[in-house]
Amino acid sequence: MALQQRIPTVEAADVSPVQTSASPAIAALNFAASFHRDAEACRNARDRELLYENYRDKILAIDTFAANVAAAFLPFLRVAASRRDSDAGRWEDFNRLARRGKATRDRASQHLQHQSGVIAAWGLECFQHYGWQALPLPLLRQLHDLAVLMPRWDDVVNLLNSKMLARHELRVLRGKNNALRVGEHSAASKVQDSRSPQLKKSTLVIGGSPIKKFGLKRDHYGMVVPSTISTSGSDNEQSDGDEDVDDQSDGDEDMNDQSEEDDDDISEKSDVNKDMNDQSDGDSDIDDYDISPPSPKRAKLSAAEPTHLSHASVSDGGSPSRTADSLPDHRIGTLPRQESEARADKTPPQPDAPPLLAPQARLSRSDGNQPIPIPIHMAAPTETQPSEAGGGNDSPPPRPPTLLQTLQQSYAADIRQLVHHLKQPHASDEVQRQRQLQLDWLDPQRWASVYAEPEHQLGGSSVASPSDADVWYLSSDSFHRYAEDGYIFRRPVVVKQQFQDSSMYDIAEYIDMLWQRFPEQQIEVQNSATGAFSLMSMKDYCLTATKVDLNSFDAITPISNATNLHRLARADEPVLSRLPRFRLLSTLADRVAGTVGRSRHLGQNDMGDHLAFNTLSFTGAHARPHVDALGGCWVRCLAGLQVWGFATNLDADDWERFQTDRCNWSPQGKGRLIVMEQDDVLFVPPGLRVIQVTFALEPCLMEGGLLWDECAIPEILDELLWNAKRPERRSEPNSFQLRAVVDALEKWFNEENCVYPSPPLAATALETGIQSAVTTVRQ
C-alpha cells in the first residue's frame, strides 16, 4: 500500500485558517493546527462554545476544502457546541456539509480528513514529530478514531506508552521479533478499535522502579523511547527537554499508591497466576502471536536493549476507586490484550537476564499483603494445577490451563468491578432492588463448567466427561462434525469460528447508521437501573449516545439496552446457521410468506421479523431473566464483551417461582456465567428450556437469529406447547403466525422432508408423536 508523501513543515506563527494556498491540503492542515492552538487557549466551557461556533462559521465560508474539514471537525464540534434554536440552522448546514465530506471515497479526501482530525486534537507539531503523515490510510483512520476518543494528548500518550511497553516486553522476554519496539511511534498508532481504555500514569513505573532503570525515557512529548538510540534512522526523538521529562518520570513512582480495592485486585490476580502456570494464547491486539516456547537464540537479549520488563508494566486500569492523579477509567471491560500482564511469568529466565520474581514475591515487596483468593464458585471441581517447578530438570512440565481458567483469568476482575458498582447504595428503593437481583447472578461468580473440543486449539476442559459440562466450547469444524452426524445438542454451545469480517463493526458507526436510516422513527430502550422499557425518538437516542460516555455506568443507564432492533449490521453468519438441518424455521417462514419473488408491498410477515436481530448494549447494561418463545437461537458477538447468564437444570418449584416472579426471578445459586468475546457464537439448541440474562462489560453489539433443528422436532413442539400455556414467560410478543407455522410444519413433515435423528427412531412412532404434538399446539 502506497504511503502518502510527507507534508512540508508549517510554521506555527500567524497562520490564517482560511488562507488560500497553492495546496488546499496544506491549507486544511493549517486550519486544523489553528483550531488546536485556539482550543488549547480556551479557559472554560463558554470559551470553547464560542470557539466552536467561530470555526463552524469559518468552515461554512470556505470554498475549496470545506466538506473535508467539516467531516474531520464534526466529532469535536457536535459534542460540546450549543444547540440554541437561533443557531439551529447554522448547525444543520454544518452537519449537511460534514455528511457530504464523509460520503467522499477518494483516497486524497480520506487522507485529508483523517490528518486534519488528528491535528485538530493533538496539534501539528506532535503530528509531524512522529511522522504520522506517512501512515497508510487504514492506520491513519485508526489514529483519527483514537484522537476522537481521547482528544487530549496527555491522556492518549499513556495509552500508547502502555501498548509499546507491553509489546516491547513480548519482544525482549518472549523473543517475538515482529513485536513493536519502544520508540517506533508510527506503529504505535495501530489501535485495533476505538474501545481502548484510558490507562493510568503508573504504567511509566515498572515493578515499582522508574523506567529509566530499564534503559527507557520519555521524549519531549511524553512518549517512551530508549535512553540510547542505537539505530541510525531515528528522527531527533530526543529533544533538549528530554532530561526534564526524564526527571519527571522519576516521580511517577509515587503515583503507584493505589486504593484498597486496587491492592485486593492485584493480589487476587497474582493468586490466579500462581494457580495457572500458563496463559491464554488469545491476544486481540498483538497479531500472529507465537505461543510456542522461545528458542534460546530468539530469547537472548541484545546488549543495546533493556534486559528486563516486569509484567507489571501494564496496568489493568480496573480499580473501582482511583487516586486523583490517575486517569479516569471509562469502561468496565478488559480486553484479552491485557493478558500480557501475566505472560512474562510464563517465560523461563534466560542465563544472561535477571531472573523474574514470582508474582507473590513482587507483590509482597510492593505492598506487603498476601494474595487474596478470587471468590469464584465453580459449578464443577476444577483441575488442580501443579506449582511451578523449583528449578530442577527432572521436574514435570507445567500443566497448561483449562479454557475455563483462561476465561477467569481474563474477565473475573471485570465482573468484580461490575459487582462493586452494583453494591454501591442508591437512593431509589426500586434501583436498589434491581441491583440486588443482578447481584444474585454475579456475586459470587458461578462460572459454567466447560467441555472444550479440540483441547489443543481451545484449551483444556474443566470436566472429565462432556455430559458433566454446563456448556460446550467447540471449534467450527468440531460443531460441523457433530451436526453432520445428527447429534442432538442438549446444552448451550459456544462456537469458536474465524470470520472474514472480524473487527469491522464499530459501536459509533452503528449508532450513526441508526440515525441515517431511521431519523424519524422511535427506538425501544431499556433502563438497566429499573428494568423499565420506553420508546425514544431516534434523534434523542443518537444525540444522547454521542454526548455521554458510553463506558460510564450512571451516564448511559437510561438508554443502556436496545434489544428490539432489526438485523442492520448484516454481518457474516456462522456456519451453523447454514447447515441444512438448522434451516427448518426459515423454510417454514418462507412457506408462510408464500412468495418467491420480491414483494410488491412493503413490510414482512411477523415471523420473518423474528428470524434475525441486533442488540446494542452499553457498559453495565442488563437484560432481565427471560425465555425465548421459539426456543433455539444463535448470537454472534460483533464487538465488545458480554456476560451471558443462564439456568437450565431447574425443577418444578423453580419454574413455578419464575411464573410468579417473571423478570424479577432470582436463580438462588443455580445460575451459571460465561463471557462472550468478539466473534464468539452462542448456540442455544431448540427445545432446551433455559432462563437467560445478559450483562455488558463494555459497549457491545450482537447479531443473531432464531432457528429450529430438523433432528429435534418433538422437543421443539414440546417447547412451543409449554410456552403457549405460559405466555407471561416469553420474551417476545405473541405476534407471529404460530398457527400458520405449525400448519406449514405439519405439511412439510407429511411430504417426508424430515431428516430423522441419529440413532433413528421408528418412523411410525416419530410420525405419531409429531402429529399428536401438532394437534395439541394448534389447540
UniProtKB/TrEMBL annotation:
Composition bias type Polar residues, residue spans: 310-324
Region (Disordered): 225-403
Name of the protein in its database record: JmjC domain-containing protein
Biased composition (Acidic residues): 237-266, 278-290
Skewed-composition ranges (Pro residues): 348-357
Signal peptide interval: none
Amino acid composition bias (Basic and acidic residues), ranges on this chain: 267-277, 327-346
